[in-house]
Amino acid sequence: MSYVIALLQKKGGATKTTTAINLLGALLETGATAVVCDMDREKPDSIYWAENGEELSEHVIPLFEDNPMKKVSDLRQQYQFIVIDTPPQLEAAALKAVLLCDFAIIPCGAALIERRALEEAAACALMANKPYKFLASRVTKKTNATKELLLQLEETKTYFKTYVTNSVVMAECQSKGQWVGSYAPSSSSHLQYRSLVKEVLQTLEGVTA
Q1: Which of 111, 178, 186, 187 is most buried, by the most CB atoms less than 10 A from its CB?
Q2: Considering only CA atoms, which of 42, 39, 43, 16 is closest in space to residue 104?
Q3: pLDDT digits (tens, 9 = 90+) for 10-61
Q4: β-strand 60-62 against 81-85: which pairing, if any?
Q5: Are the C-beta atoms of residues 119 and 189 closer than 8 Å to each other?
Q6: Using the 8-state DSSP alphabet, how is residue 55 labeled?
Q7: What are residue 165's DSSP bridge partners?
């Protein structure tokens, strides 16, 4: 069985690409077959990330077709996981990704503007009748803003218990074209994405049960 996972968020810079690339790496680490599809024709950040090195070059591809259904269907025959990195503002490409996906991840940080964008991203998944979960990402521990975000996500009851914190290695691994588990093995960021993948797999089992 294959799964299509879409990364959604209205706000640019909300770690959709960071989440997509590191989710890919953590999935590959489990032995699964996986690929990231970049749907942002104007600013294909996942592709730029992979071009900085060789490790991810075969695992990140463009998905710029006006009708991507056939390509995604073909990819389902080749990979267990297809992770779609979408453009911001919930553009047409992002809406297509929602329709194609089995599950959506909505990354969000502690900035107020990102929290306000949560409802719109969730509404998009809900209208398409697709399951989703929020992911607290790029947060700083022990700050009031992070505490408020985590409380808000807890109230939704639709969130990952794993959250991803700010770290220098997350920025550095991008410049090397690697995912954080290769760049900084056993770092806190690596362990966080390993934990996230476990939650994602458990969630997908529940979705298809």
Answers
A1: 178
A2: 16
A3: 777 778 999 999 999 999 999 999 999 999 999 999 999 999 999 999 999 9
A4: unpaired
A5: no
A6: T
A7: 139
The string of pLDDT tens digits covering residues 56-115 is 999 999 999 999 999 999 999 999 999 999 988 767 888 899 999 999 999 988 776 566
Burial (CB < 10 A; 0-12, 13-18, 19+), residue 66, is: exposed
SS (H, E, C) 130-197: CCEEEEECCECCCCHHHHHHHHHHHHHCCECCCCCECCHHHHHHHHCCCCHHHHCCCCHHHHHHHHHH
Predicted structure pTM score? 0.94
Q: Which amino acid is at 209?
A: A
Dist CA 154 CA 134 (whole Å): 10
Q: Which residues contact 93 (CB under 8 A, 6 or more apart)?
A: 39, 40, 41, 86, 87
